[in-house]
Design brief:
Elements (H helix, E strand, L loop, with lengths): L1 E7 L2 E10 L4 H13 L4 E12 L1 H16 L3 E5 L3 H9 L8 E2 L2 H6 L2
Parallel strand pairs: 2-3, 3-4, 4-5
Antiparallel strand pairs: 1-2
Helix pairs in contact: 1-2
């Protein structure tokens, strides 16, 4: 998995590429923890190039969501692939997380 970080206004966007699976999710945890420690509070995860998420990936998403909320921040998603969106629907993540198709719409939601 690769993560590119970019900033637009007060929102930090994490662009993911690859698989969010066991053995790979440590990168997600480390990156989010680092950003929260630096005072970042608004995180937007771009999952456009994520091909697969397993249970470890789902667990890490929940852990990071809770960490961001406890820090007074927000944690949202954009450009989720159909495969990952189906997984989010099955696991009821769509009742918890905000998911946007468009980057501008996602940015305006903060």
């Amino acid at each position: 998995m690769q993560i590119e970080v970019r900033q637009i206004g007060n929102v930090t966007i994490l662009d993911f590429k690859g698989k969010m699976t066991l053995g790979e999710v440590d990168m997600l945890r480390d990156q989010v923890d680092k950003l929260l420690d630096q005072g970042v509070r608004h995180l937007l995860l771009n999952l456009k190039d994520v091909s697969c998420i397993d249970n470890a990936g789902l667990d890490e998403i929940v852990r990071n969501y809770i960490s961001a909320r406890q820090a007074g921040g927000s944690f949202k998603f954009m450009k989720v692939t159909k495969r990952v969106m189906d997984l989010f629907a099955i696991t009821k993540f769509l009742t918890i997380f905000q998911v946007f198709e468009d980057e501008q719409e996602a940015l305006e939601s903060f």
